[in-house]
Amino acid sequence: MKNIITIQHTQSEQHINKMIGSWADWDLTERGIAQAKRIGERLADELKDKSYRIYSSDLLRARHTAEIIAEFLHLEPIYTDTLREFHLGEAIGKSKEWARQNQTCKVWPGTVDWAHSVDGRPFLGAETKREVWNRLLTFYNQIMESTEQNLIIVSHDGTLSLFFAMWLGLDIDMLDTCNFFGKSGGVSFLQEDAAKHRIISRLNDLSYMQ
After folding, report:
1. What distance, in Å, lies between the first and last C-alpha atoms of the chain?
2. For residues 123-159, b (16+ Cβ closer than 10 Å) or e, as one string?
3. Which of 59, 95, 103, 194 falls between 20 and 30 A from 27, CA-CA?
4. Does domain 2-85+139-209 match CATH 3.90.850.10?
């Protein structure tokens, strides 16, 4: 049985400076730091009788979120580049307005970088959803095959959306027509029971920042 808590990193600089996040190493804002502390406090109270291991993307905004939360839980984060956000190629270091003007494929309405197709490459040199899926699959298989039962994963919106799809057994090509969108600081709870049923009991719960 598995108990997995995923956390989308809290507010970071690219959320307010209108720049592309991706692999650029934006740090948390002061608000984001306070949000991560509240999440850590809440989880420390809820998980005080359980032992967890915490994994995190090695990008600064996720790493900083994980460090803050891990301190409340008396844990040492394990950082991995497999949990990074999508690499957006030439859009890294550019503004979101630049991204809107320089897309190389159709994107989902309301987004600047979420390709319509799983094989779409929104900018020159960007990863496709399928490529990120294959990158993430290595980590996913590792944790599912391990004996670790209780895990916390700190990552990014796009990456976690693929993780949720994997958890529910969806095929990558289904993501041409459906998706999971998250919010910064969203906390999700995933369980696998003794019969191997996969459950998402809470998805992107923002109340942990209150």
Report:
1. 30
2. beebbbbbebbebbeebbeeeeeeebeebbbbbbbbb
3. 103
4. no
Q: Pick the closest to residue 9 from 78, 80, 58, 46 (CA basis).
A: 58
179 closest CA partner among 83, 92, 108, 101: 108
Structure-block tokens of residue 104: 């190389």
How do residues 154-178 score in pLDDT, each as one tens digit? 999 999 999 999 999 999 999 999 9
Q: pLDDT confidence of 89, banded at 50, 70, 90?
A: very high
By three-state DSSP, how is residue 192 classified? strand
pLDDT for 209? 97
Nearest C-alpha neighbor of 185 from the set 4, 25, 32, 19: 32
Burial of 205 (0-12, 13-18, 19+ CB in 10 A): middle
Where along the chain do its domains lie? 2-85+139-209
